[in-house]
Amino acid sequence: MPGDRKMARAIIGPGGGFVFAGCLMVLALGTRASDYEAPGFATGLPVGGIAMLWLLLRGARVLSWDGALLLVVGVGANLVLGSKPELAVALAGAVLVQTVLGVLLLRLWCPDLWGCGGQRPLDRPRVLARFGVAMVVGTAAGAALATASWTLLGDGDLDLGGVLWFGRNACSAFIVVTFGLLLGQRITSRRPRPRLLSEATWAELAAAVLFTVGMYGLAFSFETLPLAFPLLAATVWIGLRFSTLLSATHSFLAGVATIFLTMTGIGPFAAVDRVEIGYLLAEFYIATLVVTGLGLSTGRDEREALAAELRRTKEEADYQGSVRQAVIGSMNEGLFVLDAAGALLLHNAAAAEIFGLAEQELTCELLAARSDRWADGTPMVDGDRPSSRALLGETVRDAEILVRNGDQPDRVVAVSAMPLPRDELRARARALVLFRDTTIEHARREELAAFAGVVAHDLRNPLAAIDGWTEMIADELDTGGLDAELAREFVSRVRSSSRRMRELIRDLLTHATSSARDLEVSCVDVGSLVAEVASGRHAEKNVTCGPVPPLLADRVLVRQVLDNLIGNALKYVAPGVEPRIAVHGCSGKLGFVTIRVIDNGIGIPEGEREQIFDEFHRAHYRDYEGSGLGLSIVRRIINRHDGTITALANPDGPGSVFELTLPAYDG
Fold first, then answer.
1. For the segment 52-84, what is each residue's pLDDT rounded down to a tens digit?
2. Is the model's pLDDT at 183 over the cut of 80?
């Protein structure tokens, strides 16, 4: 209520109570010439509406100065109308009771309405119904008290006085309170305000006004003809096409005009034999206009509000749908939703890509046909499928399956599936299935398992040798027969085994870091690196290097490449043959440099020139020691530079040619 009270006082000012009091006195003076025999029941005085609007806008309490002033004005008005003093007090009390009761009921039943405690306008039929009932109950209570007061204190027969009281006050409450609250809410509401004309135009409003004036002129000019019914057409027009405020304004002006013309003896209602019957008919006619107009306009307002809310909801749903599609479409993981009937309800492009299908080709049957084995190759039973388990309510995490893509290599895919809310309309379970391509991860795990096996095997051999030779040293020491020459032999063997282990560990560390280290590219002089590697291996006489264009590469990693290739060329030579290694290069195509490392070694078997780049592959494992990681490291480094490496036979004699490409430096 504080907000309403502040806004109301902004409209009517601090002296608003006296304004309302003055209005009531003026209206009392204007209607004191009524022909009705019961003073205080004069049909033209709209006490009910003005009094209720007064207390609502003033935010008055049950016991307040406004209520006391209303009582005083009521007594004065009834005295002016000719009532006896005691009857004037009783009738004024009836007005105060009906006003307070109506206001309390409005605040109780319509708390969201502006003027009654909230900020909303009168824009819904169900609120209009509560609004009307509150005023009817209040005025009915006032009519009952007024009738009882006249019966006890009045003179003569009241006849229709109670009904006239109810009709006059209920009619004025409908007209005045509705118009006042709607106007107040419009004035005090923040901009932007709803359009006053709703969907109509000013031209249509002018036409409706002219039609109303014409119909009133027609209906009130021919008093003996029942032509009041066309007036409803104007009310319907205004109610259907214009805002509730304009509808209330139309009803207010039409009601004032009807009462004024009837009181001055003009129109069909004044032509009735009994004046009180004419007033009563006019009042209920006005009530019909008000209820019809407000019912239509509030119904239209509610429909417009619902339509606007529907549009907002649709826009929000469309936006959420576009966001969902964008999120799902941008996922690298495959996603689809299916139901228990085998219908594929939703999927993304990544799912089609993982299964090697076009999006329009995706069906549950085809997906099942391409994913009927676990990652280890064992067949999959339908009931064990992650999607089948999710449809039964189970959540599955990262189950690895094998996906066959026709002509493409098979993929290993990690599948997670979880149940979704059940489709109650079709009585079907639903499930969400996510696919993540783990082919590389799976291969790395397999590689790691093989790596661990080879490491365990290769480390075990030098350790066993060291253990054996140290045992022999200990045995010789125990017997006291260890001579210097034998001791040197034993120590040499131990050192050889430890060197073998050290080299293996070095290769393992290089292998582990060759694909993880960030590239630091710069201009690389291959000739200086070749000289550095040859010097480090004390093979300056065995290695020659011709002109090689500068590279744009990581110097440390390129040195590892050259060290591995030159080291292998120095090691893999026939007994009694002095190794000869030649390095030269030339500019290749598309900004790359082609480098060839040529040796005179034992060569590579023809069927193994590609396999030698695999981890732990050793073409001459029986005759030469090694970890089988050197060339694998070389290929990783070359691949990281977007280059290539190929092993070829030496066309000029025994040995091999390693041809590799690396980016050229164009500075």
1. 888 888 887 777 888 888 888 888 877 877 778
2. yes
Q: Does domain 521-663 have CATH number 1.10.10.10?
A: no
pLDDT average, residue stretch 157-162:
68
CATH 1.10.287.130 fits 443-513, yes or no: yes
In angstroms, the CA 440 to CA 420 distance is 30
d(CA 524, CA 558): 8
> What is the tens place of the pLDDT at every residue in 418-462?
999 988 888 889 988 888 888 777 777 776 666 566 556 556 656
Q: How far apart are CA 610 and CA 324, in angstroms?
A: 47
Q: Which amino acid is at 142?
A: G
Residue with tokens 């120095």: 570
DSSP per-residue string spanning 240-265: HHS-HHHHHHHHHHHHHHHHHHHHTT
Query: In what side-by-side order are the strands of the sheet with 592-599?
Result: 543-545, 581-587, 592-599, 656-663, 644-649
pLDDT of residue 38 exceeding 60, the answer is no
Looking at residue 92, its amino acid is A
> Does the predicted TM-score (pTM) go above 0.85?
no
Helix (H, G, I), strand (E, B) or coil at 509: helix
Helices (H) and strands (E) in the chain, counts: 20, 13
- Comparing 20 with 546, the larger pLDDT belongs to 546
Decide: 558 and 528 in contact? Cβ < 8 Å.
Answer: no
If one counts every other C-beta atom within 10 angstroms of the C-beta of residue 104, the result is 14
Helix, coil or strand: residue 466: helix
Q: What is the pLDDT at residue 101?
A: 92
Phi and psi angles of residue 499, each rounded to the nearest 5 degrees, phi first: -65, -40
Burial classification of residue 75, based on how many CB atoms lie within 10 Å of its CB (0-12 exposed, 13-18 middle, 19 or more buried): buried
At residue 13, the pLDDT reads 53
Integer-rounded Cα radius of gyration of the chain: 51
Give me the DSSP letters along 323-363.
HHHHHHHH-SSEEEEEETT--EEEE-HHHHHHTT--GGG--
Cα distances (Å, whole numbers) of residue 363 to 302, 337, 346, 387, 420 = 46, 11, 11, 14, 19
Q: What is the pLDDT of residues 221-254, one digit of tens each?
A: 776 665 566 778 888 888 888 888 888 888 888 8
* 455, 508 contact by CB (below 8 A): yes
Superfamily of domain 331-437: PAS domain (3.30.450.20)
Omega within 30 of 0 (cis) for the link into 386: no
